[in-house]
């Protein structure tokens, strides 16, 4: 069974500088690079590199960035047949400045991502018959996200929402359409309406989200691991100890690992543990999609940390 990712495809334009420039200031930077990104595309690559059939539904512009983004997805074995090339605007871009202290500021220009609408949901529909999981994020118009979630729910496909970028205005009608929601601490605080500082406040927030209709809440807590609350049980998944180099796309890696595990037939606990391992591996390398591990790398990592290979063959 396959995973479908419905969401954003961006080119990240990354400038490395000594510090973040002040308003009106010009700085000389160290390095510039273009890196394929976008939360949707990152998650699609994360799933596909773990050996799960993956299809991406989204839009790119008819420009050089769009063609490069398409080639990058295809090189990771993502099925791109449902990606529309939009002639009226550019591909989505994120302009990122990263300083020597690893602080950053980011400007996202949606471009083609901002034009995603119900016609993209129509292209999603025939794919759902062979899918087990639909991955969603919030970098494309919310109306399309809701329509995709509703269609997948009606088709019996597991719907996972990564509620990023964080926002406070999710419609109440969206929550019952979500089988799993995977916020980090900031996003959980935004959704629940109070600060998340520890496991106890994370539990309270998960209860709030379940009362709104979400099935399972998996709160990503960084070095504290992840807290998973289902309708019947609550459990913690410890973080894997690693030396972090770059945390970009760690959340996307987690969601990709989770979706891949569920699509392969793993129980939720094992799939969540796999997600934590994929996220841990991703922070040991720089970049978004370049940091996402292969199945071979993940298996070696799990063996190194004494984890029995949780892969299911069903």
Automatic annotation (TrEMBL):
Binding residues for K(+): 246, 248, 282, 285, 287, 291
Q: Which CDD domains match?
A: ribokinase
Which pathway, metabolic or otherwise, does it act in?
Answer: Carbohydrate metabolism; D-ribose degradation; D-ribose 5-phosphate from beta-D-ribopyranose: step 2/2
| Pfam families recorded | PfkB
Q: Which GO terms describe its biological process?
A: D-ribose catabolic process
Q: Which UniProt keywords apply?
A: ATP-binding, Carbohydrate metabolism, Cytoplasm, Kinase, Magnesium, Metal-binding, Nucleotide-binding, Potassium, Transferase
Q: What residues bind ATP, as annotated?
A: 184, 220-225, 251-252
Q: Which residues form the Carbohydrate kinase PfkB domain?
A: 2-295
Q: Where in the sequence is the active site? A: 252
Q: Where does substrate bind?
A: 10-12, 38-42, 139, 252
Single GO cellular component annotation? cytosol
Give the UniProt family note.
Belongs to the carbohydrate kinase pfkB family.
**Which protein are we looking at?**
Ribokinase
Q: Which gene encodes it?
A: rbsK
